[in-house]
């Protein structure tokens, strides 16, 4: 068994490599930032898996039970055929007189295994025992506490039946710490040309999670019979290491009108501290690489001048029916036609009629489709000098592909080429930003390769740690734009939950349709603008993050006050506190809190200079140097309901970001009148446009959004 002693794990956002690979004749020991794989060269299978829960290591597999297939055939050969810093390939051959299994195991530094295997009958009348593939998960470690199992269905009418079996679980008293997913590629074809079946079976001390690939009873097979398939196992878990997304100030510009933000809007965004601008609808045909060139260059250049990074919309496999490329790729589609479309009869996402978003799904196993999507996105990224990718439809495939012209058998659930595409995009953009936008059926394996952050919010009504993806191992971000979710995602009460979970919201700007907030005012969530200044005052991208899910390094005497703590390598600290009210509010509407930071555990000096950050709006936000903090003790005498406050601590001088922000805030009185004047002019134009939109048929549709999503817009 691996050493399970408590360790500290640190990950550079540049480092998705293995930490260690040790080979012997018997074993291959593979370790990454949150996993340990042990491969047994004698059996030709993985024999043990451990995960890191953010604090300690835990073995999740049952000793002596299977990871992979359940056939125990003698080993003929086992060889490492390729080894790179983030990739390992092991090839094995196992055989008896009756059967041979060739298996190729690909291990990826991001934390997953892909096995491609082929069985061949070597004699006529070859008998078999039932074949299954999966993983044996220890009952005590994975299932003895609250856990969530997703996509455990064999109902072919349910789209979840083809997706990964996903188990989100906790190894202790936290709500969630880790996730394990198991995926199969050819889900409709087992050894008997029937549909494969998902299995979750309770056994002695463990549960088997996987797929049944043959019937319980089989007639013998003829000599030369061959069966091939591919499975994957993904592991993710809490990760509080420095992130280039957590704590950033993100504007998400989704406008159909105007298609691009004006210069005065960009300047107002910069005033409030925008650090990332996500451009959603710049591509007419949703592909992500056909913008208005002049306008795209204007926005990127001005945003860069103002100190913002720009990421642009793309997706892995959609093609608009109106795209000029469409007619050349009709032979590269899956069975999922009109996977995303505006639906003329329920078009609440657009005020004006639109069919450019009516899309079919391309099969990424088709090399020309893969090349179109990959090359188009990267050429766009390089041509306009953007700073990363915002990837929508961030899951392997909407459905199955049954077109064997693409070089695969029927019934393909193509997770492999999806992960291959994301992995290649990550290599192409190096350390630039990659944010993935999942849907209502997102699971951790969707984000296992290459992402810096996951974006949720469309499929939830509260900031639940599992739903926002804390177990995915990347920074959670939040889509806040639906009009129906004002209280949950845009009200002042949202702030304390953002603080508690360490979630970075995308602030929506632009005009689309009645389903989405329509605004050209970057300051419309006024309370969030003050929280932005707290993140802005600190090098959050260089800091390890702590909250209630991580190692405990802070204590409070008031459980109704939530916190976020950021600590850099040079011992600078940002502490944000927020009063949630909760049960104590009626008794004490304003309450105090005493905080004790564990300076010894964090290696901080006993005395640190302190600056207090306070204010409910951008206009009232203020910074004051206050007496030094001794031994990590901070007392806040009063916080009203939903009020939040911040403290920056430093062993010596203030962080550069804090000093820069203080100078910036001093100039507010001179700059804000001109910003307000430009905003009023912009809003007057906006009001006229909304008045016009209100006369159009789409604005008059009284379509319930649940009904809208329940129709054939299955991608929701």
Give a topology summary.
Elements: E1 20-23, E2 27-31, E3 35-40, E4 45-52, E5 57-59, E6 67-69, E7 75-84, E8 87-95, E9 99-108, E10 112-121, E11 132-138, H1 139-143, E12 147-150, E13 165-169, E14 178-184, E15 197-203, E16 206-212, E17 226-237, E18 250-253, H2 263-272, E19 276-279, H3 293-305, E20 309-314, E21 318-320, E22 359-361, H4 367-384, E23 388-391, H5 415-429, E24 433-437, E25 453-456, E26 475-479, H6 486-489, H7 494-501, E27 504-509, H8 526-536, E28 544-546, E29 554-556, E30 561-567, E31 573-579, E32 591-597, H9 599-602, E33 607-614, E34 622-630, E35 633-639, E36 644-650, H10 656-666, H11 668-693, H12 705-710
Parallel strand pairs: 18-19, 18-27, 19-20, 20-23, 23-24, 24-25, 25-26, 26-27
Antiparallel strand pairs: 1-2, 2-3, 3-4, 4-5, 6-11, 7-8, 8-9, 9-10, 10-17, 11-16, 12-13, 13-14, 14-17, 15-16, 21-22, 28-30, 29-32, 30-31, 31-36, 32-35, 33-34, 33-36
Task: Explain this structure.
With 716 residues, the chain is α+β, with helices and mostly antiparallel strands. The protein has 3 domains: 210 residues, Beta-galactosidase, Chain A, domain 5, CATH 2.70.98; 298 residues, Alpha-Beta Barrel (TIM Barrel), CATH 3.20.20.80; 111 residues, Golgi alpha-mannosidase II (Immunoglobulin-like), CATH 2.60.40. The protein is 18% helix and 31% strand. Strands 7-8-9-10-17-14-13-12 form an 8-stranded antiparallel sheet, with no helix packed on it. Helix 4 runs parallel beside helix 5. The radius of gyration is 27 Å and the shape is globular. The N terminus and C terminus are likely disordered.
């Amino acid at each position: 068994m691996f050493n399970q002693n408590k360790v500290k794990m640190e990950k550079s956002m540049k480092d998705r490599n293995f930490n260690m690979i040790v080979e012997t004749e018997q074993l291959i020991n593979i370790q990454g930032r949150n996993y340990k794989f042990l491969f047994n060269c004698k059996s030709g299978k993985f024999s043990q898996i451990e995960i890191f829960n953010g604090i300690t290591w835990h073995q999740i597999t049952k000793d002596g039970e299977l990871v992979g297939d359940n056939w125990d055939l003698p080993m003929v050969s086992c060889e490492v055929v390729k080894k790179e810093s983030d990739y390992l390939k092991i090839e094995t051959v196992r055989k008896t007189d009756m059967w041979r299994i060739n298996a190729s195991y690909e291990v990826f530094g991001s934390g997953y295994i892909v096995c491609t295997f082929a069985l061949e009958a070597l004699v006529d009348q070859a008998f078999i025992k039932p074949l299954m593939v999966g993983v044996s998960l220890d009952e005590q470690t994975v299932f003895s506490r609250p856990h969530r199992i997703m996509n455990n269905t064999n109902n072919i009418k349910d789209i979840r039946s083809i997706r990964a079996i996903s188990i989100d679980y906790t190894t202790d008293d936290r709500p969630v710490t880790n996730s394990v997913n198991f995926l199969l590629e050819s889900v409709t074809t087992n050894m008997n040309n029937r549909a494969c079946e998902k299995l979750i079976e309770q056994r002695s001390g463990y549960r088997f999670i996987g797929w049944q690939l043959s019937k319980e009873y089989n007639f013998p097979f003829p000599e030369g019979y061959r069966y091939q398939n591919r499975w994957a196992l993904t592991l993710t878990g809490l990760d509080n290491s420095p992130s280039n997304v957590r704590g950033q100030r993100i504007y998400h510009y989704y406008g159909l009108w105007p298609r691009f933000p004006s210069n005065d809007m960009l300047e107002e965004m910069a005033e409030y501290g925008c650090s990332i601008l996500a451009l959603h609808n710049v591509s007419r045909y949703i592909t992500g690489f056909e913008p208005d060139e002049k306008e795209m260059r204007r926005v990127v250049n001005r945003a860069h001048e103002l100190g913002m990074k720009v990421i642009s919309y793309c997706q892995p496999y959609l093609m608009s029916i109106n795209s000029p490329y469409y007619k050349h790729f009709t032979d590269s589609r899956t069975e999922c036609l009109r996977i995303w479309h505006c639906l003329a009869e329920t078009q609440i996402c657009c005020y004006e009629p639109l069919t450019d978003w009516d899309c079919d799904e391309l099969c990424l196993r088709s090399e020309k489709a893969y090349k179109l999507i990959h090359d188009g996105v990267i050429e766009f990224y390089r041509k306009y000098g953007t700073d990363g990718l915002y990837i929508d439809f961030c899951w392997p495939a909407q459905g199955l592909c049954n077109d064997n012209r693409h070089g695969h058998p029927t019934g393909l659930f193509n997770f492999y080429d999806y992960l291959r595409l994301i992995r290649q995009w990550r290599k192409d953009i190096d350390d630039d930003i990659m944010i993935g936008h999942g849907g209502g059926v997102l699971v951790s394996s969707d984000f296992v390769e290459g992402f810096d952050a996951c974006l949720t919010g469309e499929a939830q009504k509260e900031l639940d740690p599992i739903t926002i993806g804390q177990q995915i191992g990347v920074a959670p971000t939040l889509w806040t734009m639906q009009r129906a979710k004002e209280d949950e995602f845009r009200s002042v009460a949202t702030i304390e939950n953002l603080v508690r979970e360490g979630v970075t919201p995308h602030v929506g700007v632009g005009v689309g349709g009645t389903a989405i907030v329509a605004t050209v005012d970057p300051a419309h969530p006024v309370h969030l603008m003050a929280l932005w200044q707290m993140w802005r005052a600190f090098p959050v991208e260089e800091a390890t993050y702590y909250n209630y899910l991580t190692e405990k390094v802070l204590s409070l005497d008031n459980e109704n006050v939530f916190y976020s703590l950021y600590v850099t390598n040079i011992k600078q600290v940002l502490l944000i506190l927020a009063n949630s009210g909760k049960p104590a509010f009626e008794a004490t509407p304003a309450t105090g809190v005493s905080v004790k930071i564990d300076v010894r555990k964090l290696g901080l000096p006993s005395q640190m200079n302190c600056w207090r950050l306070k204010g409910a709006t951008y206009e009232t936000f203020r910074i004051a140097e206050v007496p030094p903090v001794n031994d990590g003790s901070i007392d806040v005498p009063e916080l009203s309901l939903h009020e939040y406050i911040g403290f920056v601590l430093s062993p010596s001088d203030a962080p550069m970001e804090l000093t820069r922000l203080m100078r910036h805030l001093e100039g507010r009185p001179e700059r804000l009148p001109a910003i307000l004047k430009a905003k009023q002019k912009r809003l007057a134009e906006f009001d006229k446009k909304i008045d016009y939109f209100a006369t159009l048929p789409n604005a008059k549709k009284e379509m319930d959004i649940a009904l809208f999503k329940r129709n054939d817009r299955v991608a929701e």
